[in-house]
Amino acid sequence: MKKNQADYNHKTQEMVNPVFNTAKTTVYQMALAGDPLAASIAEVLGLTYDETQKSASSSMDQIYEQTFRIVLDIRYHTMQRLALQSGQPVTVDVPCGYTPRGIEYARSERSFTGLDLPAVISEINEKILPMIPQEARERVRYRAVDVTDPDSFRAALTDAGASLCMITEGLLMYLTDSEIDAFLNNIRWALEEYGGCWITADPEIEIQHKSIQKIIAAGYSRKEPENSSRVLREKADITSPHNFMLIRLEHVDEDIKAAMERLPGYNLRAERLIIADHMKTSEITSLQEVSEEQKEAILKAMRKCAFWKITALQDHRRDGADEIKTKKNGFSLSAVKRGKKLEMRVAGRLDTLTAPRLLEEYQKAAAAQEINEVQIDCSDLEYISSAGLRTLLIMHKKCKDGVVIANPKSSIVDIMEQTGFYPLFKGDGSSIAPETEPIVP
Asked: What is the 3-state secondary structure (H, E, C) of 204-266?
């Protein structure tokens, strides 16, 4: 692929899926913290400070950047220890990003499966997988996935092996209510199908960030650090990046209780693993950047924060209960320009895997001729994720008369209403032509 085309595709991926750049931010921060493998990966990927820390989707001030690096360092190494201590023979990292975890597992002779966006997996297979000796690559696999799609999730775990330790670092804060529901159903299926556990650092991530940020800010003359919630909102680009699995600092006890009570509805149960009880300070090189007083304060704060270990309550299928029903919904797209109006039809799932294609077709049309309005027939649209909503919003902001959706199913309306987007895109679509010229999927 030519470099300018690759750059274009990466920019499109980041616009639709800001977490795409977060994966590069993460490995670059690991390199800054002193991880030699992360430094090698950053070099292979050709990453720069400006590219990863000041991207199109987000930027960080000095206080937040140091906070992010410490939280990341604690999270990565402690999660690694917990995964190894779990006793499960296979670790599944979702999303895996560009971290050195696969290389480390290959060296330890354990099995590892990394799941992420197609663009990330493609780059990993091209540039990072060759860093693993040929004889060890059979233990490491990378698969593209949409974590909200049952078919995609199941396909990604094909031949994963029995008894998994699934780990999640930095995913849940990007999921809307409907997406967290779909993801938890997929987690339930995986635990019932393969056995094992799911360990996630995400539920109490706001507590970790804000607690450490307050400590770090005391070392700077500036009194008011950048708000971590605002940075997450900036990255996610959705109205309210919150779901019931995310614990708010102001409502810790209430939110933990509510989440614990809802998980059994997914045949799941959780236990809190206090971070300070499982972290090894000698591994956390970023703590060398702070004073001894700040280090002690951070350790004290981590005694109040936890990762969550989640397991299946029971195997429902042995009890005769129904399995999760899935429906294959391939994505298709057609479009035609009528003057300065672009009329489109979408079918199937508009999600992290397919939303970039919708944006690319719009950008292609807009490059050829000015587009003032986009009308989209959603009669056959079965599902829309936050990536799909973000794509509509990007197009809406670029069009003088915005984006109008027509004939959405009630399930699509529900998702849009949950995120506050429905009034923005609502329209009767009466001017959409009955026939459009197909665009090759």
From this structure: CHHHHHHHHHHHHHCCCCCCCCCCHHHHHHHHHCCCCCCCCCCCCHHHHHHHHHHHHHHHHHH
